[in-house]
Amino acid sequence: MMHFLEINQLSYDEVMSLIKRALDLKATQVFPSYSCRMANLFYENSTRTRVSFQIAAEHIGMRVVNFDLDRSSEQKGEVVEDTIHTLSAMGVSVFVIRHPQNGFPQAIAGAFHKNVHVINAGDGTHAHPTQALLDMMTIYEHKSHLSELKIAIVGDLLHSRVANSLQNMCALLGVAELRLIAPKVFQPKIVQFGHVTSSLQEGLQDADVVIGLRIQRERLSLDACMEIDAYRRDYALTKHSLSWAKPDVMLMHPGPINRGVEIDSDLADGPQSFIFEQVKNGVFARMAVLERLILDR
Ligand code: NCD
After folding, report:
1. Residue from 42, 48, 49 to probe ligand 1 pocket by mutation (most atoms less than 8 Å from CB)
2. Are the C-beta atoms of residues 172 and 230 closer than 8 Å to each other?
3. Which of 257, 262, 219, 215 is nearest to 241 (CA)?
């Protein structure tokens, strides 16, 4: 594995070995040590993904450059390719890139061949493969019978790179059913896997796992606008709506959550919530990805 760009580039065995390695790192807390450098290049805001990569890298002995875009020479007109050449010349070999443009990390990966490994930390509305990996790690940890699971994703599916990568992940690992629940304005234009419904009750009925999504206000065009009150009334994850799912349902969300919009606080902080477990697992999932890239060099 040279780069980590999309779930589609991976085989069943590759994904399962990453999940099992991540669970093993979590269980043993025995971390190997690799001496190389990673740079975080985030052209979009982030809390958990950026810090998670930093902590993951530090756990396995890597040194991290947190590239500060606002104070960098890109503000003087330097292009990102030159930034990467420059950092690479100083010994950085792994580049974690988040960018608002679909396909941006893939284009960078295609333009560099030697000593540059790119990890996609989220590109536009397209893909977020490490999020899908940590989500599936969390599900597998608690419900390993994937081929019997009914998973529901609810929210702004039109703009969600997390949902896209999860569709590919569920298809690859043979999840029984994936329900994609959204009002018409947030329904995806292309579906890789799963079936779309605008009925929250139909989608949540007997679900084993429910994943909420944030409304991506920063990506909304005017025609995709929806009244928050109307969204809440019909699509919010509340005690009432979650009661349609199985009693032992896992409630998940990639974060950041908007409390009182797509999910109620008592649920987010309640016993069915795995939201902070996802965050915790993200560090181990990213350690497994970083290690794979380093070992395959
Ligand atoms: C997601 C993202 O950036 O795509 N967050 C994350 O990485 N944990 C989802 C979001 O921003 O809503």
Report:
1. 49
2. no
3. 262
258-294 as b/e: b if 16+ CB within 10 A: eeebbbbeebbeeebbbbebbbebbbbbbbbbbbbbb
User: Residue 90 C-alpha to ligand 1 middle, in angstroms?
Assistant: 30
Find, among 109, 111, 102, the residue nearest to 44 by Cα. Answer: 102
Token reading at 294: 């380093």
User: Quick check: 246 and 266 in contact, CB under 8 A?
Assistant: no
- Give, using CA atoms, the residue closest to atom 7 of ligand 1: 49
- Catalytic residue numbers, as ranges: 48-49, 76, 98, 128
**Phi, psi torsion values for 84, nearest 5 degrees:** -70, -40
Which phi and psi (to 5°) does residue 64 adopt?
-115, 135
Beta strand 37-42 with 195-197 is unpaired
Cα–Cα distance for residue pair 5/102, rounded to 1 Å = 12
Q: 10-residue block means of pLDDT along the chain (297 residues)?
A: 96 98 98 97 95 98 92 87 95 97 97 92 98 98 98 96 98 98 95 98 98 87 71 95 98 96 96 98 98 95
Q: Atom of ligand 1 at shortest distance to CA of 282? A: 8
Ligand 1 centroid to residue 127 C-alpha, Å? 10
The pLDDT value recorded for residue 76 is: 87
Q: Locate the ligand 1 atom nearest the alpha carbon of residue 254 and give its number.
A: 8
Pocket around ligand 1: residues whose beta carbon is below 6 Å from it? 48-49, 122, 128, 131, 161-162, 214, 216, 254-255
207: which 2 tokens?
Answer: 């679900």
